[in-house]
Amino acid sequence: MTSCDSKDIALKSLFLGPQAENATWFEQRWLEVLQHWVTWRRSLFSGDGPGISENDQLSELFLRRQAEVETRLRELLGELDGESPKFTPRFLGHMTSELALPALLGHAAVLLHNPNLTSREVSAVTSRLEREAIADLISMVDMPAEGLGHFTSGGTLANIEALWRALHRFDRTQAIGLRMVEEKLLGLDEFLSVGSRSWEWFDAQEKLPSPNCLEQYSMLHLGPHEFGELYRRITGRSFRSPIVLAPASRHFSWPKAVTLLGLGRDSLRDIALDGHGRSSASDVAEALRVAGVEGRPVLLMVSVTGGTSSGSVDPVHRIQDLLDEHRVKTGEEIWHHVDAAYGGYFCSLLKAEDSVGLSEEVKASLGGIGRVCSVTLDPHKLGFVPYSCGAFLARSALHYRSPAFDAPYLIKGNEGAWQHTIEGSRAATGAVATWMTCKTIGLGADGYGRILRRDLVATQNLTTELLRARDSVSILGPADLNVICFFLARQKESLRACNERTLRCFQEFLKSPNFSVSKTEFSLQSYARHACLSLVEKGIEVDDGKITCIRLVLMNPFFSSRETAVRYECLFVDELLAIISRL
Length: 583
Fold this sequence. Notes:
alpha/beta, seven-stranded mixed β-sheet, globular
């Protein structure tokens, strides 16, 4: 058997392993965490005396209550035996996998201290560790060092953070524009683009009133009804919400975000996808043109790096080039946000000598992330950090600006993170778990880059192995990252029949004790160009509006391990073929 590279062997020390091979070391470190916490508690204010006496601890009711807790704990542990085994390479269904030991230890250590990142008063140390971890993530995606950010409960909140800030900028610039129109300092035609102007434009206006003076022109302050009346009185036109552009591969958090922030579902416009399942820069340009004709400013442009259905990577660099040209031509700075909740960690591969598995186009797209206004990351996905842990990153203090709120019992300014976050109370567990992984695994080519390279190789190997089933299986396009989507298809059958058989195959996998997979659907209205080759190759009759697919996420770092007694890619295809033979 070929031995592993020494660098791969070193990375194996950072995970428990499929058979809990590193359990002895991890148990010792876990106990060390607990003992350190207990010692710390005992060392502080020791002169105060105990609050629980030895006699208390020997009393019948005291011991009975402890026994009840032990019973319930054992009951809970028994229940958890039925939990989904996400640690195994056989778990292919969703974007969760094995956890990194440094992340678990950091999470556990902070969990015992229970800090709240809302303010340094209740997170004296962990608020600093949060800033350090954010700085490391900013460096990984190649944003400017002066960028800012914070941890969230997940990618959904991080996406809403971006839209919230873009909406705040839009509201401020639109408010000053309305004031200027009312004072005859600005024409209506020019006013229509004011909502997409930059903070620099806002700050540079002569005789700029204080923000409080703008409240009488503010949509967010007045509310939709009163603002609509004001807008019509000043402009003679009805107000329509600004537009959010997002690819059809967008996450479900974006419809949530536009409705939650009161923009209306109609404000979210889909960008068509190309033959690779990515948004097209030319379609973005057309969407900008249409918005201009309609007189509706574009509030936010969303690009996706690692779509949740197929792992697709939008051409971030090309879209940013287009937005840069648009700014030079019109003066509008379209806020560009990259939802890299899943794929952002692949930026760790950009400086690798061998980034096998990433196409040149995908590498260029990942390399463009540092140029955008804001980014969402999810360390609880490819950072192998426990749930729940997302991160919002902004390229500058200007892009980190948010609406101002007051809480007189909390410290303001740089000490008060609560002033800049949607969430008030925020657990520090995710921030410190990420800090631990940044300092131990590392965000470069020999750290996360090496781990994710294994995922890409595993994806290639499984894709190749699936060719054994090519008479019955069609893969939906080449994978940009480490997600494979396929459907069952025979020559010249109907799409409806393909979908029905794929669904039955998925249901068989649900009953399987061997592998866990997931199911997704691709609307032909959005994914027609992406699906075209797969359908044409087998002469599929299109009599349905969607393609039902089985979805595989190759996250586990041990999927292609040489030491295991099985080859998971072969075992999976064997089971797939057995299921197909029974359908």
